[in-house]
Structure prediction request, 421 residues.
Amino acid sequence: MEVLNNLLWLDLLRNNLENAAEKAYRIHKLDHKQDYKYIFNKKLSIAVDQSTLIKDNFPINTNGFDRPVPLGVENAELNIFRFTDEPIVDTVKQTIGLDHCLVVYNLQKPGKVYNTHIDYNRRFIKQLPDTIAKTVKAKDIKKYIWFIQDQQIGQMFAVGRQCLSWQAGDIFSLPWYMPHGTANASNINRPLLMICGI
Amino acid sequence: MNNIFEYNSLYEYAISTGLYSPTQQENDLIRIGNFAIDSKSIIEKLKFAQPKKSSTICEHCLTHEELTGMKQWGELTRQDHINWGYSETGYASAAIVDEDWPTELTDIANSIGFTEPPLQKVLKQSPGQMFPLHIDVYQDLRTEDQQQGPDMTFDPMIRRVFIALNDWQPGHFYQIGNHSWHNWQAGDAITFRWGVPHSTANSGHSDRYTLILTGKIDSQWKY
Prediction:
């Protein structure tokens, strides 16, 4: 695991991140029953102009790096907004303790799934200063899910072998290699913040 | 008696009449046990029809009421899904019941304690498919007249049982009331009270197969 954790993220993006993540997750399962960590609860009031949301359905290429597209992607969709310099970014950094982060508002409408995948974090790496991006190792990548609203019946979020139950304000972390997927079979939108940081 | 047609939504009906509470902590999901099955052999024998689109979601289709002048319970589910913003979504493929139907499934069906052989159905849900939140109306076991009547009162002698035909994989979702069913092994069986809203989705990388049994029980029913 140490070898995998110490691989440079840019190298992984160029050379089969999927394989490395699969190996890391296999090792993880030998030692851990839990695939995520519950961090704490902090309520977050956040307003996003819905007209600024853009559709995300597994872009193959982002910033020059490719990723595979999973089966059943036809019904995959999130509506997202990437925060740049809004106060929420500082709130996230301070609350979680990150030096750099990409905060994405992530809304899933009823009827949509987002197939199980690992995150490539291509935009996050791209936004880092070059000198830092070149040195980021797999183990440096921190992933967080910050739920903004209580879970509703029909809203589902799987992390590895587990399904999350959440309340508004719950923050969970998952390691860089952890597969996760979502579905919203409920009657209302499901918003959350997806955070990648170092 | 609650007149079902006084409600605009089957989901609201379930909440208003106390069939389901979003805040209750009691277990909505009842585990029956595990049947030893040869998953691969069973699945190989099954033949599947084209993936079924949920007719409940077809916005442009004529409703049962528009076609017949009569309301029907299932229409309320359809209306729920339209109101919630669903577009037409594939939810699953049903296996064709023919002479090659695996006898193993019939053996399981007949061993659970239904008073008569239950209706058997196998659904295959492929990656990307979803069955939106709904409550069952057990239309196969109710007459057309019943389904058009105002009294949808639960028949406590009807039960539905779900049996997983293959092991759980990440991204296989089964949400029943306030509980999630996951990590199952092939052969695991569950049931739940009528009126509990439930939904399924497959965001995984492999098909999910479920045997669904619906039938009448008697007071000796163990679960």
